[in-house]
Amino acid sequence: MTTSSAPAPAPSTLLVVLNPNAGRKQGREQFMQRVQPALERSGTAFRLLETTSQGHAQSLFQDLVRQPSTPRNDTLRIVVLGGDGTVHEIVNGILRGLDAAPHGADDSRPRVEIAIFPIGTGNAIATSLGILTVEDALERLIAWNTIPLRVVKVSKCLHEGDGTVLSHSWKPHAYTVVVNSFGLHCATVHDSEGYRSMGNARFKVSALKNVLWLKQYEARLDLYGTVQRYDRTSHELVSAVDGSTVPQDEPSMVLAGPFTYLMLTKQASLEPGFTPTPFARTSDDWLDILAVQNVGRGQILQILGAAANNGQHVDNEHVEYYKAKVVELETLAPGRLCIDGEFMDVEAGPRGRVRLEVLPEDHQSQFFVCS
Predict the structure, then answer these.
(1) With a threshold of 0.85, does the pTM exceed it?
(2) DSSP for residue 359
(3) Is the peptide bond before 251 cis (omega within 30 degrees of 0)?
């Protein structure tokens, strides 16, 4: 084992990213007692990268892929001892580094494979894949069987200096692999930072606080192309709109709001039992949309309670569930969007319009996760 503040470009070396502050700060102990012995028994060469602050993992990998000596068409294998935030940083570091790297497109398609040890306060990716314990993660690490980890690009609308909106022009803001939200869920995650010492319980405390002072969030969500919806009668996903019948630059469906709860995600579960988007799949090219529009405290508590009972809320009459590949959000007042636990301020009206789209498989980098 070698320890370094920067990744080694050698493709044969496994990179172990340790976030010592994740979750209950047991990452270093788990690495020394469980992960390191397993890797040494298997004869796997690895380099340990220990993060020191928020954003550190992103900068490490952004620097890595920008190095001219880094092979572009090889496989980069990464073990993460941390939560969703660490994975988010790694994905963003790699993609932003590739965006800025001085090399041709033909050389810019690294395959990135990630094994996750769920020791963070947010472990949605691992939970959605059935990886609930360190033992589960060790089994996946030894087998190293992967599935695609599809990425969502979040972009801001471009406009001229005088404020004129440039129609259908977008500037990438971030890449996400877990959840994007607006309304109650976003407010819950934002306020939960003040209760971080409570571990996962911080989300429940923050949720109850925001339900007590429940707000409705004025916005509209435009869905483009082909759309599926959950049908409560047949209890299955059905075709809602055939995208080929709608002009490409026009929405095929509009959710007018106001929204109490709006979630756009690639993961089925955010924590064991809490399954807000039960039909979401890490590896498919759909963005799952959970929309609850303009309900009161009793109704949202009932919906959240059913969601915490393995996703039974989808049959509630106030819940709308869709699948789309491209959506755009526009708010009527200044707002906030949660993107994998980070927060983006959103201007009101067309100037603040935000676009979310699942990246195609032929994007400049492909991500996979041990399942």
Answers:
(1) yes
(2) P
(3) no
